[in-house]
Amino acid sequence: MILLAVLFLCFISSYSASVKGHTTGLSLNNDRLYKLTYSTEVLLDRGKGKLQDSVGYRISSNVDVALLWRNPDGDDDQLIQITMKDVNVENVNQQRGAKSIFKGKSPLKIMGKENLEALQRPMLLHLIHGKVKEFYSYQNEPVAIENIKRGLASLFQTQLSSGTTNEVDISGNCKVTYQAHQGKVIKIKALDSCKIARSGFTTPNQVLGVSSKATSVTTYKIEDSFVIAVLAEETHAFGLNFLQTITGKIVSKQKLELKTTDAGPRLMSGKQAATIIKAVDSKYTAIPIVGQVFQSHCKGCPSILEHWQSTRKYLQPDSLSKAEAVRNFLAFVQHLRTAKKEEILQILKMESKEVLPQLVDAVTSAQTSDSLEAILDFLDFKSDSSIILQERFLYACGFASHPDEELLRALISKFKGSIGSSDIRETVMIIIGTLVRKLCQNEGCKLKAVVEAKKLILGGLEKAEKKEDTRMYLLALKNALLPEGIPSLLKYAEAGEGPISHLATTTLQRYDLPFITDEVKKTLNRIYHQNRKVHEKTVRTTAAAIILNNNPSYMEVKNILLSIGELPQEMNKYMLAIVQDILHFEMPASKIVRRVLKEMVAHNYDRFSRSGSSSAYTGYIERSPHSASTYSLDILYSGSGILRRSNLNIFQYIGKAGLHGSQVVIEAQGLEALIAATPDEGEENLDSYAGMSAILFDVQLRPVTFFNGYSDLMSKMLSASGDPISVVKGLILLIDHSQELQLQSGLKANIEVQGGLAIDISGAMEFSLWYRESKTRVKNRVTVVITTDITVDSSFVKAGLETSTETEAGLEFISTVQFSQYPFLVCMQMDKDEAPFRQFEKKYERLSTGRGYVSQKRKESVLAGCEFPLHQENSEMCKVVFAPQPDSTSSGWF
């Protein structure tokens, strides 16, 4: 028994490195005054960690700590008083010298009388077993000052034994791990576990999102049950996923050192802490130890109307291709987020029709309740006189970075109400589908509005009697990607008429691998091999593409390969090009395809020597170890040489996450009669039609029509100007990350990352009977600006780091076909224009009184233009070449 007791004591002593006579938390000696020095500092930089490249400040003071009361029934129940004295504020970077904003200024002038007096008032901390029971301060103190006091008080919360627990301190309710050693305790706080009410949002798509990492480590040196030194370091680092040059870092440090101990106040007697607190000062009140939100007041700041008046000149239609337009658009969106409905409505009502579409983009992108109410009051969906504004509003809703249920509910209400334009009605339903998917991705599938929207889409598709309604609900499902919609898609894919069947199969093409089950592939195989009915080439080739891209079986691949040679001539060539593209690009199906090709019956000269002009090619725009941008182009012609479908796609990948950046599909049908050619099998009765469909950043847009019907075709051929038709044009808020951080020092930090673009995607199809030539053109013009803004605010001094990265780029695809003879001549080219690439950096430190320091840098380079290969014979990747320009740097007062 004695031996067991000895072993137990040995285990306890080895498990917990404890201070003599005390094993739970800090313990103060009676009648002693502990004199310490304290400092907290913060640094901001772009993650390089160089002091000379950082901005920030340091707050320091002397600190007196005394034990006022100890519970006579337990030593671990203590009430201590903490007082900050001789407060000072200074630069962390001493190289600032004469440029220091604090030079020649006393703490009183820097902080103001109210702040300084509040900071130096004593605070009380009630500790039980080393953990904070209550925190006491005075009422009506400035919140920012109380937070600094909370930051100091939280350092006194610790335990002297190893283990993991949850603690409540200034950071919130957090998971912490203690590692105890002789005379030292290390406290590791899992900041991502902290539960604290703070505003913020982010773009859910990983490709466009922001990755962040936060750490917090506090080291205690213990002697005689009390700290002789505390060193805490907290870091917050972030980076934009798809552009790793956009980074930022916040480093916050706290340091507390014991200098001496003197005779202190005598211990007060009593059994309850509340009685002692009342005796010390009845004005003390218990307040949460968790940091509280405060807003810095902007003195003399412009109103939202004044902001708009200085912004609108950059948003004129002729200026939208410039980076200045996007930069001012992003800045104005930020201002709109603090504006009231009446202020926004006033600006909307007074603006001219030339700038109004851009203003609608900005107001919708603000994504606040006030901005939504204002734009809904302004737009009249019952009228067809403002279709452009209604469409710009709806597309901005579709690209919303963090849509909420309120927005979806508003669109459902509009759809159920009266809408003057059938095109706008269709667009409303398409965007409802987009919002359903985005809300479901954010764990909002069970929201009432989402459930209602699902029923609206699926029920509407089931009951649709008109082709137009069927198309509308299929397009909505193409955005929503509801698993429960797959049976309806299979029905329309196999039994529907040509355009509807094609739309249903392209919708299935957007679903992820887990949803393309064996049952789905059975239907797709029937469509491709025409087991039940004859299908158009576009439907069959889409069905084959889905099979080949979703873990095909050996027999599925073999049957597709065996079909080559039995298909219409151009479809033969197209399917052959698809198989060769799978092999050359090493797609997932390449292994199974190679296995099948070992069989002579599938791989022979007769099958692989088919002539034709249809093609398929996939290549890299850019490739790095952590990301890749790819493009793919497939073109299918009819047997007479007329374009049947061209499909241009651009994808961005980060690891396993992907983003469908853009897709532009141009389709034509029923044009054989113009050149007295024979239509292909299954396409004898198709109406003359040409149109364009686009996906932009995973959002299917409403398709546009070039012509529909023979008479429409002839009238447009006779009056054709050759001008392209715009599919989408406007300003888009694509990246939107906002994060408010409560630093454990008590300071408030904010991280804002916004990415916007001005985009214009247009397309044209020209057809000449005289020259027996057709030409298709797709043009993408994009201006991108990404801004970051990191700030740390104490209410009396603020440090910030702002960066901006911008480029203006163009990508054009042209396909020309001369069908005066067979085989017809085809010329294809895809060119990327030369693009400027600019980076700006601004660092500043600013007092609330207005005095500040600023440093600015600028770096420019040029990305050389290039031509992308579009077939296997010319597969060298287009290389991006930077031509650097001279940098510029400036710094000084403001």
From TrEMBL:
It catalyses: a triacyl-sn-glycerol(in) = a triacyl-sn-glycerol(out); a cholesterol ester(in) = a cholesterol ester(out); a 1,2-diacyl-sn-glycero-3-phosphocholine(in) = a 1,2-diacyl-sn-glycero-3-phosphocholine(out); a 1,2-diacyl-sn-glycero-3-phosphoethanolamine(in) = a 1,2-diacyl-sn-glycero-3-phosphoethanolamine(out). Keywords: Disulfide bond, Endoplasmic reticulum, Lipid transport, Signal, Transport. Residues 28-659 form the Vitellogenin domain. One of its GO terms (molecular function) is phosphatidylethanolamine transfer activity. Residues 1-17 form the signal peptide. Transmembrane segments: none annotated. PANTHER family: MICROSOMAL TRIGLYCERIDE TRANSFER PROTEIN LARGE SUBUNIT, MICROSOMAL TRIGLYCERIDE TRANSFER PROTEIN, LARGE SUBUNIT. This is Microsomal triglyceride transfer protein large subunit. The gene is MTTP.
